[in-house]
Specification:
Strand order of the largest sheet of chain A: 1-4
Distance between the termini of chain A: 36 Å
Strand content of chain A: under 5%
Radius of gyration of chain A: 20 Å
Largest sheet of chain B: 2 strands, antiparallel
Distance between the termini of chain B: 56 Å
Largest interface: A-B, 45 and 43 residues
Number of helices of chain A: 15
Strand order of the largest sheet of chain B: 1-2
Shape of chain B: globular
Oligomer: heterodimer
Strand content of chain B: under 5%
Helix content of chain A: over 70%
Order of helices and strands of chain B: HHHHEEHHHHHHH
Largest sheet of chain A: 2 strands, antiparallel
Number of strands of chain B: 2
Number of helices of chain B: 11
Chain lengths: ~325, ~290
């Protein structure tokens, strides 16, 4: 890592550390925390949608599962914060294996339908299995996190824990994409048959990436549960999955920084779209349609293209595209 | 006792099963011809239901004009989305097109909410409300009409595809686009036909079932999944498979809700979908597909 890059990271982390001091009202701090949680979620969706080419509607469900596991472990079973956090990560891993193993062999649309079916089944379980999940009213009284004797009572204090987790997840995600595995993942996305012929174990790689992404989503759920101290099925509708996909597409699917830009914009936009009441979904729908036609590589893609035009270097930009036999010659 | 109850459940499943057939046929059409799963299939069903209610109840048209007008209108909506939203994505990664159809579903759902409001609408009785008693099995007469109507549509559609010159051209385009184009089939027309007919089949289902079902803006979502399940059950892309899958799904669903629990009716369908995808994604009638380069 060069010194200038190190300084850049240091500056960004420094800004992030003082950010909660700027907005002292609890509402602003809640928004700030939600941006980070959604950044984790958007990164996990980007791994599946942007890097492996699977349209997922199930990540909000995994997020909900993580939240419920953490809530149950800390209220009914009385585990400490750290244990319940780790347990929900473990839950995300198991869900990833269980859902990923049968479905990831399937082509795009089958996978998308399977995630929708999974989401509906889990919603029904959350609502109807009242003795465990508390039914439609959910689980209340989730304790605030206590870590090593330090209790994080307010959202302003909790911010630092969320920041820490987000940074760790971001660096894991970045290293995964930048490593040789990342290149393999993209090769698999652009032409799975050719990738298989080159000796990539497509099924196993897809399953690994999917499981990593479900662990991230589940951890985000745990963070959310301890922040709002209350989980209920109504907080995890299918619409949230659409919002996550908007984040990824707006930011740039298959780009490292895409989910971060996307989640910042969508969380802020959502605060204003609330005034439209139920019609914010109409805005989302049109946003996806227009983005896919006019800006399929999102904000990051636009920036990258702009940058490569400025520097006059013909750098390869990794767009999502299907590479057929014709183009491979 | 058990047998008569079983027959009763199967008889009352036929009407809804025939609607699943129409939806599954739409799925098979788009997937066979263009390898696209149209996520908004159920929302065209919803639009059809609303259009039927609007023309028949609010504007007072006769039923046969209602059917023609609403089907034509919804087909046009389907073609409009194909021309504006799907066409530019044709050369890109397939996942963009898939996502675009999902976005279409969201747009249609919320537009319907804007136009007709979030409450459920019920169409007035179009067919007679008599109940036939066939040796102990009670069958409402309107269900027979719905089933017959759906079967008639399927036969007509099949004959069009098999016998007419246009239909043969469209089938050729589904097999080999370039060759069909060389033989003088307009691909532009064929593509529009696929999406228009898919939307129209969904809409016909909606119009037919509206008298016995409440129509609300988000109803399409469940019907998308059920139609897809029916299509996959029989074998996605096969017309016979769609018809078999539709009736089979209707019967399975009704048996599950009749003998096990009716609150979890939809969950059985979702579980069934997961099980089919797990065990035999190519469906009952088709051989497993080998992907070629």
């Amino acid at each position: 890592m060069s010194i200038s890059r190190f300084l850049k990271y240091l500056a960004v982390i420094g800004i992030l550390l003082v950010l909660p001091l700027v907005t002292r009202n609890p509402y602003g701090q809640h928004i700030l925390n939600m941006i980070f949680i959604y950044t984790i979620l958007a990164m996990s969706v980007n791994l599946v949608f942007g890097y492996t080419g699977g349209l997922t509607f199930g990540h909000v469900t995994v997020y909900a599962i993580g939240a419920y596991i953490s809530a149950l472990a800390s209220t009914k079973l009385g585990f400490s914060y750290l244990t319940s956090f780790i347990l929900s990560g473990l839950g995300g891993f198991l869900v990833g294996i269980f859902i990923g193993y049968p479905t990831l062999k399937l082509a795009g649309a089958y996978f998308a339908m399977a995630t929708i079916a999974f989401d509906r089944i889990m919603q029904t379980i959350f609502i109807n299995w009242e003795s465990v999940t508390g039914g439609p009213s959910g689980i209340t009284g989730i304790p605030y996190p206590v870590l090593g004797g330090v209790s994080l009572k307010t959202e302003g204090q909790y911010y630092y824990l969320i920041l820490l987790v987000t940074l760790i997840v971001f660096f894991l995600y970045r290293n995964l994409i930048r490593s040789h595995i990342g290149k393999t993942i993209m090769a698999m996305r652009d032409n799975p048959v050719a990738a298989e012929a080159m000796g990539i174990n497509v099924a196993r790689l897809r399953l690994s990436v999917f499981t990593i992404s479900t662990i991230f989503a589940s951890l985000a759920g745990s963070l959310y549960a301890h922040m709002v101290k209350y989980v209920a099925p109504g907080a995890f509708p299918l619409e949230e999955s659409v919002a996550l996909l908007v984040m990824v597409v707006l930011g740039g699917p298959g780009f490292l920084m895409g989910p971060i830009y996307g989640s910042i914009i969508v969380v802020f936009a959502n605060e204003y779209l609330q005034y439209l009441e139920s019609f914010n979904m109409l805005v989302y729908g049109f946003a996806i349609l227009l983005l896919l036609i006019f800006l399929p590589s999102g904000i990051t893609g636009m920036l990258e293209r702009f940058k490569s035009r400025l520097s006059r270097k013909k750098e390869g930009i990794d767009y999502i595209r299907e590479v057929g036999i014709e183009e491979m010659r | 006792m058990f047998v008569s109850e079983l027959l009763q459940q199967i008889a009352s499943a036929l009407a809804i099963g025939s609607i699943y057939c129409l939806l599954a046929l739409g799925f098979s059409l788009t997937s066979r011809a263009l390898n696209v799963i149209h996520f908004a299939q159920g929302d065209f069903f919803m639009l059809g239901g609303y259009a039927g209610i609007t023309f028949y109840m609010l504007l007072g048209f006769p039923f046969w004009i209602t059917i023609i007008l609403s089907t034509a209108l919804v087909s046009l909506v389907g073609v409009a989305f194909e021309r504006t939203a799907y066409k530019p994505l044709w050369k890109r990664h397939h996942i963009f097109l898939l996502m675009s159809t999902a976005a279409t579903s969201i747009v249609l759902q919320n537009s319907a909410m804007l136009i007709w409001g979030p409450d459920a609408w019920r169409s007035p009785k179009i067919f007679s409300d008599k109940v036939l008693n066939i040796s102990g099995v009670l069958v409402p007469e309107e269900m027979i009409w719905i089933t017959l109507g759906a079967i008639l549509i399927m036969i007509f559609f099949n004959v069009f595809l098999q016998k007419s010159k246009l239909g043969k051209g469209f089938r050729a385009a589904a097999q080999d686009r370039e060759m069909a184009q060389g033989m003088g089939v307009s691909l532009k027309l064929a593509d529009s036909f696929v999406f228009g007919a898919g939307a129209g089949l969904g809409a016909l289902g909606g119009i037919l079932i509206a008298p016995i079902l409440f129509v609300y803006p988000t109803i399409g979502f469940v019907f998308t999944i059920k139609g897809f399940t029916a299509a996959v059950l029989g074998g996605l892309g096969s017309i016979r498979g769609a018809i078999l899958g539709g009736f089979l799904l209707g019967i399975i669903e009704n048996l599950c809700s009749g003998f096990i629990s009716s609150t979890y009716k939809d969950v059985f369908v979702f579980l069934l979908l997961l099980v089919i995808l797990l065990v035999k994604p190519s469906g009952l009638l088709l051989k497993p597909k080998v992907e070629k380069v």
